[in-house]
Amino acid sequence: MSVAFDASRTCRTVVMRSMTYFGSLRVVRLVDDGCALLRREAMPTPSISVVIPAYNAEHTIRRAIDSILDQQYPASQIIVVDDGSDRSLQPFLQEYGSTVTLLRQHNAHAAAARNTGIDHANGQWIGFLDADDYWESEKLLKQVEIINRHPEVALIAGRHFLHAPGDIRQLSRNRKRAWFDRVVQRSGPNAFLLATMIWTGMVLVKRSVLDEQRFVSGLEPAEDRDLWFRLAANHSIYLMSQPLATAVLEPNGISRSDIHHDCTKMLEVIERHHDAIGWPWRSIWQSYVRYRWAAMETSPRSALPILIRSIATWPAPYFGLPAMQPLGRLRRLITLLRTPWNEKRALESRPSKRRAAA
Q1: I need a labelling partner for 133 at 20 to 30 A (CA). Which of 41, 123, 171, 331 fits?
Q2: Percent share of the chain, pLDDT over 70
Q3: For residue 281, what pLDDT is reported?
Q4: Angle at 58 between CA 57 and CA 62, to 5 degrees
Q5: What is the pLDDT of residues 234-271, one digit of tens each?
Q6: Which of 88, 48, 125, 64 is nearest to 255 (CA)?
Q7: 8 A C-beta contact, residue 81 and residue 103
Q8: What is the spatial distance between Cα 105 and Cα 53, in angstroms, rounded to a whole number?
Q9: In angstroms, what CA-CA distances link 258 with 86, 100, 131, 140, 345?
């Protein structure tokens, strides 16, 4: 609640709440001596470009585009970057006409595709949406409201939904609740933790801060965490607690990868910024990534050496990071150590072919 002074009437006017946007105007409800008044205030209307990298996304691209066109605050530009799909996306986008700009490049993966979109974006702010994901209709409106309240913010992100095909939507984890719904400025290891909480599909970033910053090709699928860390270490960030986008876990999406590749690239990102992250957090993050890798690795023979290295890198409990479960590393280690004995016992108890034939 804010208080304004009306000099012409020499009385205080209390602004109760803002209502909604109509073009470039905001309607604000005022209460003055018990009388309801309406006042129209000119509000900034930042232009927004949306970049959609796409690879073999003919079955999902319309859903992504339609979720942008359904926004209560309209995007000024929609750019689809076809990253060398087997089939051209042009036939699937004809219905949108000039509303959607289609760019095509040889397959160079997500980082290069997003960089191509940034180079062609003319908006003051840029949003990113993968071709298999989608936004809630009020996503841009809510973020523009934050821009107008906090002009110092350079990047807005927040919680989101996760949706595996055939399953119900799940809400992403809410780590570091004290960092949500407020402007945060972090450095060093805290900036790195902040970067891991930023999902690209919820990002709205000021175009000017990307003038000298780009996604790094070859770091996929961790290229976004690398960029968000560089921005979080030097700019103000705003995280929204309200989920306004959905990540659809399609197995062949442009940003999806297997656990081996994902964790390997995340370790590369940590090494790229080892001085900025500093000790002991560099070791903690390396250990944590390997723990996550070992926990999700389906082959016990592959998982065991990864988990042992995780423990050797940081044997103490994690602090300040979301543990996957209490005593998770110890439990996983016991399970992996028992697996060979269980397999041997199962083989010994299985009747031989000769005995079975008899």
Answers
A1: 123
A2: 80
A3: 95
A4: 95
A5: 999 999 999 999 999 876 655 555 889 999 999 999 99
A6: 64
A7: yes
A8: 11
A9: 21, 31, 19, 31, 31
Q: What are the tokens at 299?
A: 């082959």
- Alpha helices, DSSP H, located in the chain: 61-69, 90-93, 109-120, 139-149, 188-196, 223-232, 259-272, 274-277, 281-296, 300-313, 328-349, 353-357
Q: How far, in Å, CA of 67 to CA of 331, rounded?
A: 43
In this prediction, residues 122-143 reach a mean pLDDT of: 98
What span, in angstroms and rounded, lies between the C-alpha atoms of 171 and 255? 19
Amino acid making up residue 63 = R
The pair of three-digit structure tokens given for residue 26, joined into one six-digit string? 């905001």
Whose CA is closest to 276, among 187, 184, 154? 187
For residues 166-175, give the mean pLDDT: 86
Work out the number of other CB atoms within 10 angstroms of the CB of residue 26: 19
Residue type, 322: P
Residues 77 and 101: their CA atoms lie apart, in Å, by: 8
Closest CA to 110 of 261, 285, 291: 261
